[in-house]
Write a structure and sequence with these properties.
160 residues, alpha/beta, YbaK protein, eight-stranded mixed β-sheet
Amino acid sequence: MSKEKAPVTQAIRVLREHQVSYSEHLYKYEEKGGTTVSARELGVDEHAVIKTLIMEDENKRPLIVLMHGDREVGTGMLAKQIGVKKVHPCDPKTADKHSGYQVGGTSPFGTRHAMPVYMEASIVELERIYINGGKRGFLIGVDPKEAQRVLKPVLVSAAA
């Protein structure tokens, strides 16, 4: 763990505003390392590291998908559950534009534009999750029920 001070991102401001208790975890970010690297650096199970994915439907409407780090999103399953024809990941530039965060540092809290949030249902069953705090190399540990309270996601079963 570095002695670096954790940043106060828009995500942190939202958590404070909603009085959510959280822990701050800085780690050495690796390009394209994903949740494998962050889980290793934090010494936690990758299943508890939650990816924040910015996706779009067939009409280019953006949405957020929260998924376990060790799972992929079954886009066909997701599309069927949310009542659209197709869902696909945004390219990084488009994702950055929708979220206001840089890919690799995308948090579901405090996004630039309000987007519907879809959370893999089994995430809520975990004791604690580690999710991006709004900057590359910065995760926050939080009770998934608190994330659910703030984000008000639609629970889905789309893990592949």
